[in-house]
Design a protein that fits this description.
The protein is α+β, with helices and mostly antiparallel strands. It has helices spanning 6-34, 54-60; strands at residues 83-90, 97-103, 109-112, 116-118, 121-127, 130-134, 141-146. Strand 5 (121-127) and strand 6 (130-134) form a beta hairpin. The protein is elongated.
């Protein structure tokens, strides 16, 4: 008479466990896909906005309090700090050319010599790595923009 070997019972047990796992996965996904959409629970109310006293924060960070009745002066923005020269295409013999300039941190745009950058400011000339802005095409230069030095 032939008796089954212990190894065959291991194979049968492993097969049964795999089929049981497959049936469990099928039941899980069947229930998950068969149900309606999930409804999210409402979020709890967050912290409320609190009024902040700038003078108190300034004292906390080591600032010196201003004299009473004296308003702090607004920072003065220089004309040159509003513009950034990104690129230059200068005509060597024609005196013409174009400059790529970013105004107030906006994306840079190309401007030809003589074109208006903003009301009251014109691109007067471009040379090498420099662009000159003036209030009028033949007027005195108001701002000179230069490209940063080239690094390898």
């Amino acid at each position: 008479m032939v008796t089954p070997m212990p190894a065959t019972w291991t194979v049968r047990g492993a097969t049964f466990a795999l089929w049981l796992l497959a049936a469990g996965c099928a039941a899980f996904w069947g229930l998950r896909l068969g149900s309606g959409p999930e409804v999210a629970a409402p979020l709890p109310a967050g912290p409320r906005a609190v009024a902040v006293d700038p003078a108190a924060i300034g004292r906390l960070l080591g600032g010196v309090p201003a004299a009473p009745g004296v308003a702090a002066a607004a920072p003065v923005v220089s004309l040159a700090s509003r513009f950034q020269l990104v690129g230059v295409a200068a005509g060597a013999s024609s005196g013409g050319g174009a400059a790529v300039i970013s105004v107030d941190g906006a994306p840079a745009k190309p401007y030809r010599v003589g074109s208006v950058i903003e009301p009251g400011l014109v691109l007067q000339s471009v040379q090498g790595r420099r662009a000159v802005l003036a209030t009028q095409p033949g007027g005195t230069p108001a701002v000179t923009l230069e490209l940063p030095p080239f690094r390898k």
